[in-house]
Design goal:
single chain, about 240 residues, 7 helices, disordered N terminus
Length: about 240
């Protein structure tokens, strides 16, 4: 049986082996099981599997990770086993996917805490330059609000997640928002498993982004548009870093 670091190498089939050259780390921040965000994440993983890419899925709620404090930025501070698992997975990944519900205009606290903790290895010693070297990032969000609310308010409210990881050196490659994840008005629950169009759509996105992840994993290259955006971000970060 697979441990916490589940590997998916074929659509909807779990395996504990994967190709270390090209794999994608999928962090699921859902607090319910089953959850809408994890169901979509599994469909995305199935799309990766169709392109023979493997995925390492970790449910953050299952991990024992200490709350961030400044001591975690000090050299030589011991790392708990679950945090070391995340660090090693992220450092060796060809792509990063974050799947999270939206609660009250934000993400679950354990996701934000994990991002804060990642600064201990994803930033240089001055905390001014990212070390993820362009790692492609795809984000999946689920919420009860309709799509117009996402465009009007939620997108800006959640932009800090992408900005933090871009500051760490990741490249934001895409975002999917699944609206109206409510069985009925005022009640939350699993609904996306009954949305074949949504599941197929996110599965196709997994197939599409597998090319980005594969190229990055094999030769470190990004599509021209993403490479240009990443180069600009890196240049600006380098300039601003001189003043920190």
């Amino acid at each position: 049986m697979c441990s916490k670091e589940q590997m998916i190498t074929l659509p909807l089939i779990l395996s504990c082996a994967y190709d270390e050259r090209v794999h994608v780390l999928v962090l699921v921040a859902g607090t319910n099981q089953p959850s809408n965000c994890e169901t979509l994440a599994d469909a995305f993983i199935a799309g990766l599997g169709e392109e023979a890419l493997s995925a390492q899925k970790l449910r953050i709620a299952d991990l024992a990770i200490e709350h961030f404090s400044l001591r975690h930025y000090e050299p030589g501070v011991p790392e708990e086993a679950d945090f070391r698992l995340v660090r090693e997975a992220m450092e060796g990944a060809a792509g990063l996917v974050i799947a999270s519900p939206i609660w009250n205009f934000g993400v679950p606290a354990h996701l934000k805490n994990l991002i804060d903790r990642c600064g201990s290895f994803a930033l240089d010693r001055r905390q001014s330059r990212g070390k993820l070297n362009g790692l492609p990032l795809f984000m999946i969000f689920t919420g009860g609000a309709p799509s117009p609310a996402w465009r009007a308010t939620l997108r800006s409210a959640l932009s800090g997640i992408a900005l933090a990881l871009q500051y760490f050196g990741a490249t934001h490659a895409g975002t999917h928002f699944e609206a109206r994840c409510t069985p009925e008005r005022g009640r939350f629950g699993l609904v996306v498993h009954e949305r074949p169009k949504s599941l197929q759509h996110i599965r196709e996105k997994g197939k599409r982004f597998s090319r980005i992840f594969r190229n990055f994993g094999e030769n470190g290259s990004l599509p021209p548009k993403l490479a240009s955006a990443n180069a600009l971000r890196s240049a600006l970060q380098k300039i601003f870093g001189r003043f920190l």
